[in-house]
Give the backbone structure.
Amino acid sequence: MGRHGSFGGARRWCWNGKSGAKSAVNTAFSHFVPQRVGRAIGGDVGKFIKSNNPINGNWTSKYRHYKHGPYYYGTIKGQWREWGDKLPAGIAQLDRTPDWLKGGVIGAI
């Protein structure tokens, strides 16, 4: 079972890392460990957390990032008012989980 999990995780990491989403319009990088934590930690670990690295997040639509990001309100003034309420904290954290990690867990099952 372990090899299936690692294969699933590797496959999702490769897909996420090479995704064309980062150059697509209306996308934002959603960090699993928030950038504010990286600023508080500082050093190399802080730089890694603040970077748009697929190990620490996913490229998502701005709408989806708003739904699960507690401090994200879009890039157009007032745009968030059209998007409704944010997701509950637990569901939001699951949605923010990097795709490679979701793939690893599903692959291990």
About this structure: The chain has one domain: 2-108. The longest strand covers residues 27-31.
